[in-house]
Amino acid sequence: MNVVVIGGAGFIGSHLVDRLLAEGHVVDVIDTLSPGSLANLADARATRGPLKIHHLDASSSEADSLFGMRRPEVVYHLALFDRHDRSAQAQAQAFSSALATLESARRHGVSKVVAGVPASSLYGQPAASALPMKESELVPRGVRGVAARAVVDLLTTYRERHAIEFTALAFSSVYGPRQAPSGGVVAALHEALLTDTAPTLDGDGRQTRDFVYIDDVVDALVRAGDRGSGLVINVGTGVQTTIRDLWTALRGGAGLDPISGPPRIDDLPRFAVSPVRARIHLGWSPWTDVSTGLRRVLAPD
Length: 301
What we know:
This protein is α/β, with parallel strands linked by helices and 301 residues long. It folds into 2 domains: 2-174 and 212-238 and 273-287, NAD(P)-binding Rossmann-like Domain (Rossmann fold), CATH 3.40.50; 176-208 and 240-269 and 292-298, UDP-galactose 4-epimerase, domain 1, CATH 3.90.25. Helices cover 39% and strands 18% of the residues. The strands form 4 sheets. It has a 7-stranded parallel beta sheet, sandwiched between helices. Strands 7-10 form a two-stranded parallel ribbon. Helix 2 links the parallel strand 2 (26-31) and strand 3 (51-55). Helix 1 (11-22) packs across helix 8 and helix 4 (88-108) packs parallel to helix 6 (142-162). The protein is globular and about 55 Å long.
């Protein structure tokens, strides 16, 4: 099967590329290489599998031409929402990129688009009693949440009008090998441990997150290639872990105590998503608990 992975040189995308190649698919990667890196695809390139890497913007005419030449059956868009750039311009670019990709899919007969969206931006400010969040209520939080919801609406519109199937995977906090220190909480704390630096937390570190390991996420992505059409599906464990507990587990009694910093204005005090819909529609459940995942981060294969 021919597959295009937009953002395939990124943290999540590169792991997905490895899995797709291992399963015998023909893979084209579209990536601007910011923040993605060719180093993330070193293993994939070493396998000499059917992989081509294109240094392109997904919204460009060159990317549209690539769709026309390759005629992929499935397109994964994993480069919509940058973790750090929350400017209005970045959110507008996310919408524009999704629209351009769907237009290319329409023109060139793509049958399925799988898009990654940030779960924490889709569900507003949930009460503790509502956690883990289910997909039944999308209550966008901030401009980023509005843009994520708009992407879901775009996907729905193209399914209804042009018969392009989609699955939108709402990711909780993904972590694992290859993640840059700026790419997530686990990676930042791991860097602090390696450099013997006291990490500075946003607030007192009692806020909770739902940490899901990269291998579990990739499995959900692969399953979404031919399942879960027309749905937003959460990809998380449903389990809350505080940032302080995460640091304690990582350092194993060693390392410096964290420093409490000012909380971010838009920070959620508690968050987790329910994987129930993923079990029903993808046949997927997370299998890596946090302690096992952290051991793999500390000692990657």
